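Researcher: Next entry in the queue.
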Amino acid sequence: MFKLLKSFGGSYRANLVLGPLCKLIEVVFDLFTPIIVAYMIDAGVGTRSVQPVLAGGGILLAMAAVAILFALACQKMASRASQGMGTSIRHSLYEHINALSHADLDRFGTPSLTTRITNDVNQVQLAIALGIRQLMRWPFLAVGSLVAALAIDVRLGLIFVVSMAVVGGLFWFVMKACIPYYRSMQAKLDRIALIVREGLSGVRVVRAFVREGHERRRLADAAQDQAATAIAVGRLSSVLNPVTFLVMYLAVCAILWAGGIQVNIGELTQGQVVAFVSYMTQALLSIVYVANLVVVFTKASASAARVNEVLACQPSVTDEGAEPVELLSSAGLPGVAERADGAGLPDTAEQVRPAEQAGASKLTPTLALRNVSFAYPGAAADAVHDATLTLMPGQTLGVIGGTGSGKSTLVSLIPRLYDATEGAVEVLGRDVRAWQIKQLRQVVGMVPQQAMLVSGTIRSNLIWRDAGATDDDLWRALELAQAAEFVRALADGLDAPVEAGGKNFSSGQRQRLTIARALVGAPKLLILDDSASALDYKTDAALRVALASYGRDAAASGELPPAVVVVSQRVASVRAADLICVMRRGNVVGLGTHDELVRTCAIYQEICASQGVEDETVSPGMRQFPPAQLSHETVSPGTTVSRHEEVRHG
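Model: Structure for this entry, 650 residues:
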């Protein structure tokens, strides 16, 4: 809690200091009130004189008016400080979360981060507000009342001290038992948030499989677990107020009894006894409020620790020390050689490499993986193991394999969503760890598996990569992504509204819009991570033709033709690729063209056969040995890759 105050309280230092001081002045008036009342009783009521009563009443009214002004000032300062710091904490927390890598986000989890940025920050805000308004008031009032009571009479003060000790001890034991419950309640709120998020985001799947009852039971169980903890705390806390008031009124009775005797013998006045009772009531009630503050600060302390845990997490993927890469286009340099498939390839290294590599003698690949391995934190084996391949400008790489084979994990290493644990990933001849992250992700356009749009308009979603993109740029990207037709059919066109998650569009439309978003800004490397799974075969084919045409047009205009990485489970989507990477259990078990792989890779042949893709180049002998019966899978003549145990894959 103090760490957050130190980090975010600098701008609100005046409010944090002056607010409690204003409350302190109000408390001083509260402590003088019983003395003035005692004076009104002794000097006015006791002597049947009106003047002291009127004078004392006037003083009380003036003190009340001044106290209200200071209370309002304290309230305003508390609001400014708590709301301002809460806003600053949320802003910093959200900004920091966006700087974390996928590995860091996996560590915390989305539901937990959501709870931390909302509920936990709310708890910290409440603690700051109450700290300014009440943290000074109640302890000072309790101590001041005790001192004033002892100043009136020491013997009656002993009753005061004993009653405060009894109430204070009771609160200490109850709070000690309650604190562990308060800490566990936040973790159980994370569980509730997780279940609610899963149920709402997957409501269509839940209904399709008639799992509404199961989801209701899951939420009910989590809510009951959290409620059981809250009830346990409530049971412990429920004894506080009754016992406190019991002790307080028993002490009042004792004071009236002993004080009455002293009044009769002339040692005390009636006004002093009344003032003594007032001070004791103020002190014991202060203990009750202090105990409530302990509860609030205990919750806030647990919440602050959770917030600090996120803020203290250093991003595992950073670009510290990386220098901007100055890229050279192919304009004005020798022509582009035509490949057999019509796509253009630069015929000079200077056209594609960073400026500082201009002296290199060989053509620089757009993408190169050199013995790349990656393992998720805590995993027993690699999710990607020893992957090596090269992709030249204008070429297309197809990545194919079964579910959980590591396809998405492999391509997520390219834009540094994760960092490879071994080996090197190079883009345009430079290790991705040497790029500035912002520039790398301008060069690499990625379309993830899940087509995600945010609330706003089509235009606001498309300009993520290039805020200065013109309408012509956006329509060009939509044309390439086969999305222009349905966007033009909308009444508002590019300004058509997009609901949260793009729920007002079909799955195929969302996928095409996310592809268009990746194309805005002319990336040099485009990654399509199974992003055409919701498209029909005709649209999928038209998309591939459009991307090939886009590459040829870029080369013809003197620009570097983009390389494309297509992740898919469809053979038809990768068959025409210049290079196909076949993956199984994180290993590259096949690498080559379609014609080469159907002769040499059993896994690829099995995939082709399962999709009804026949080819005369398939070796009859390969059909006799399904992959499950082979101890090794042939990648290319003379090269074998051993099988590995199943591991976690993206």
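Model: The chain has 22 helices and 16 strands.
Researcher: Noted, moving on.
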